[in-house]
Write a structure and sequence with these properties.
Elements lengths: L1 H18 L4 E2 L3 E2 L3 E7 L9 E10 L5 E7 L6 E5 L5 E2 L8 E5 L2 E6 L2 E9 L9 E13 L3 E13 L12 H10 L7 E7 L2 E7 L12 E4 L12 E5 L2 E6 L14 E7 L5 E8 L27 H15 L6 H13 L4 H31 L13 H18 L12 H7 L3 H15 L7 H8 L4 H23 L2 H4 L7 H9 L1 H19 L1 H29 L5 H24 L12 E3 L2 E2 L1 E2 L2 H9 L4 E6 L4 H10 L3 H9 L3 E6 L5 H9 L7 E5 L7 E2 L6 H12 L1
Parallel strand pairs: 13-19, 22-24, 23-24
Antiparallel strand pairs: 1-12, 2-3, 3-4, 4-10, 5-9, 6-11, 7-10, 8-9, 11-12, 13-14, 14-17, 15-18, 16-17, 18-19, 20-21, 23-25, 25-26
């Protein structure tokens, strides 16, 4: 009785659904390792119309079915339709397969869930209001270590409706997505040519111009066209690519080669197109730029411990960042601040916490901006803020004002009277926060050991994970200063406050003057000599304004009128900032083409880097060292002077017929940013050595010695 009621209820549901004009899928068939069913893209079909009905297969984990060409082994899925008179089924639309390797064999397969759409056409005589039954007998081979042939008989009830029935609420969007991504012709021109024991396939066309060719692969329709398991070497060109294939039985000796070579060209990013190649001469625009850059971008799997490992690497990188040359100018501010409160534990701890807060806040703000800019499609990396002449000009003036303040030209937060006493009494938390902020801004362009992998990992993850890695970097960077502030034994070893503190403070102002000079030099590299003159004038005006402001503080301490002088001083500083901003905004930023790479030392001349130049030199069989650098990266400049400028290095390059290329990232350059990303890096320095006889490029440490460079060039030339 219960079964009879259930059947009647099901019949009533089907009838109601059909009256509502919706298609009804038959039962899901489990044939052993696969669940199959027919699903429609639209809820009904109009007379004379065509809709897509997809074979949906949910494949058991670790098992797979096969594409139209199964590769070295296997059988493609087949569908035999039983349709009413006048109805027709078109060709199966095959999604791009994956490569499934088993020992020496390579198959073209599907895993997980796959939808294979088929166009179904109704005759013009189909009656509106009727329902047709579509049935299909599906046969397929499903494999893991063993292969099992399976079958399924599937059905679908489809109403005939007047006009469009609209997309099926459950499957319409998914089938549309499969159809959009399925390989289809796109006007690509393809030519093949036997070349000794190889077969060259050249493809050119608009979709390939500027595309990332990494992972490009040709899936042939014929199972005998190529040796599937052989590697397909990629040579990029300005308008396409050339694949070197190993010919199959279609091209065996004595056989008449086919007139066409058809199949699917797929890229690693999911793009795929149908191509039909004809025999002919290979176009020059499809080759000449060499293989795609090596993909060494750090991923979750390549970092031991995943997120925990990335956090640990970031913390270690932050610790080591304190030793990088980028941070040296700001160390003077840290030292002066710490000495001020060495014998006031509570105030020293407050400074430590404030410094930590400044570091973390600035790291997270810069990281958030970086993620937002990259999400918008811009090719930028870590240290992007110093690629702006406006930021560089502002920082140069800021460093100058900080140095003048430390020299006693003017004071912040106190009068000149009682400076010595005031220095030991005020808590300085705001100053410590500011010091942490400034330290991060100046240190951010450099990447210390362990940082590269952690930052490369961070920029491939969701925003929350990425920000946590940057926070760990900030914790490591702030840790030494915070630890000293919280360890009384270390603090008590410092001398007690006295006149020596004022002398120390003024002495430590000179590294800040050096930082202002360095930033001014960076600005000159970015904006040119005319803008440099304006910024130098702004510096003089800012110094004059600071001096006048300091005089007003002295008059105020003496009980004299001071507002006029203070106003003049502030106006001069404001005018200096405006002048430097105007110079930065009006400057013509030199491009890579405009600026020639300078010599790196006696006898060692750096050529300008480009992917095309690297490919040409590798084709000549010459070892290459690429220096990804920037004027604002102090570590880069130190490495250049210490490790790349010596006569012995020049002799090693000459002996190995090696070439030194410089990729100058001082100004924004999306090509250099992409090259850094290809090596899993988001900042400079990066040193890459290409061996003369091909092979994978070698990445050198971020801190170089002359011996490291010579050894790397000798190995590359061997």
């Amino acid at each position: 009785m219960f079964l009879k009621r259930a059947v009647l209820a099901l019949q009533a549901f089907v009838a109601a659904t059909l009256l509502a004009g919706a298609a009804v899928a038959g039962p899901v068939v489990n044939s052993g390792h696969i669940e199959s069913e027919l699903v429609p893209q639209e809820s009904g079909i109009a007379p004379g119309g065509t809709i897509y009905v997809a074979l949906r297969q949910k494949i058991q984990k670790d098992w797979h079915t096969y594409w139209r060409n199964p590769g070295d082994a296997g059988e493609p899925t087949k569908i035999a339709w039983t349709l009413p008179a006048g109805w027709a089924a078109g060709d199966m639309v095959w999604p791009t397969p994956i490569k499934a390797r088993l020992g020496p064999l390579l198959d073209y397969a599907y895993e997980g869930e796959v939808l294979i759409p088929v166009p179904i056409s109704a005759p013009a005589s189909a009656q509106v209001g009727t329902t047709v039954s579509l049935t299909a007998k599906v046969s397929y081979l499903v494999c893991e270590q063993v292969c099992v042939p399976e079958d399924a008989e599937l059905s679908l009830l489809l109403p005939v409706v007047a006009g469009s029935a609209g997309a099926d609420p459950k499957w319409g969007g998914k089938i549309a997505e499969v159809l959009a991504k399925a390989p289809k012709p796109a006007g690509l021109k393809a030519v093949f040519k036997p070349d000794g024991q190889a077969l060259k396939l050249a493809v050119t066309g608009a979709p390939l111009k500027g595309a990332d060719m990494a992972g490009a692969y040709f899936f042939p329709y014929s199972s005998k066209a190529i040796e599937h398991a052989a590697e397909q070497a990629i040579d990029r060109g300005p308008e396409g690519l050339t694949l070197t294939l190993q010919p199959g039985r279609d091209f065996a000796g004595g056989a008449t080669p086919p007139a066409e070579l058809a199949g699917v060209l797929a890229l690693a990013n999911g793009s795929a197109w149908e191509v039909t190649a004809t025999s002919g001469e290979l176009p020059a625009a499809a080759a000449g730029l060499g293989p795609p850059p090596a993909k060494t971008q750090t991923s979750t799997a390549s970092i031991p411990g995943g997120l925990i490992g990335a956090l640990a690497l970031a913390f270690l990188g932050g610790l080591i960042l304190n030793l990088m040359p980028c941070v040296f100018p700001v160390l003077s501010m840290k030292a002066a601040s710490l000495a001020t409160h060495a014998h006031h534990e509570s105030k020293a701890r407050a400074q430590g916490v404030a410094f930590l807060a400044g570091v973390l806040a600035t790291f997270l703000i810069l990281a958030g901006l970086l993620l937002a800019v990259r999400a918008g499609g811009a090719a930028v990396g870590w240290g992007f803020q110093l690629q702006s002449p406006l930021v560089i000009a502002a920082l140069a003036l800021l460093m100058l004002l900080v140095a003048l303040n430390m020299s006693g030209v003017f004071e912040i937060g106190t009068s000149i009277q009682g400076v010595g006493a005031g220095a030991s009494s005020r808590d300085g938390a705001l100053g410590a926060f500011f010091t942490g902020t400034l330290a991060v801004v100046v240190a951010a362009p450099c990447t210390a050991p362990f940082m590269a992998g952690a930052l490369g990992y961070a920029l491939t993850q969701p925003a929350v994970v990425a920000l946590s890695v940057f926070a760990a970097l900030g914790l490591g960077f702030a840790a030494p200063f915070v630890a000293v502030a919280f360890i009384p034994a270390v603090l008590h070893r410092l001398p007690r406050p006295g006149a020596w503190m004022e002398i120390l403070k003024k002495g430590l102002a000179f590294p800040m003057y050096g930082a202002a000079l360095w930033l001014t030099w960076v600005f000159a590299q970015q904006a040119g000599p005319i803008a440099l003159g304006q910024v130098l004038g702004a510096g003089v005006l800012a110094a004059f304004g600071a001096w006048v402001y300091g005089l007003s503080q002295g008059r105020r301490a003496a009980g004299k009128a001071f507002l006029g002088q203070m106003l003049v001083g502030l106006l001069c500083v404001g005018a200096a900032l405006a002048l430097s901003a105007s110079a930065a905004l009006a400057a013509k930023i030199p491009t890579a083409v405009d600026s020639a790479a300078p010599s790196s030392g006696p006898g060692l001349v750096a050529e300008a880097w480009s992917p095309e130049r690297v490919a040409a030199l590798r084709a000549e069989g010459r070892p290459v060292l690429v220096d990804f650098t920037a004027a604002w990266c102090v570590t880069c400049q130190v490495n250049e002077k210490v490790a790349l400028s010596g006569g012995k290095v020049a002799e090693a390059f000459k002996a190995q017929n090696a070439v030194f290329l410089k990729a100058d990232w001082t100004n924004r350059d999306p090509v250099i940013a992409k090259a850094l990303a290809d090596f899993g890096r988001v900042g400079v320095p990066l040193y890459v050595v290409y061996p003369k006889n091909g092979g994978e490029p070698v990445i050198l440490p971020q801190l170089l010695t002359e011996g490291m460079v010579i050894e790397a060039i000798e190995k590359a030339g061997a």
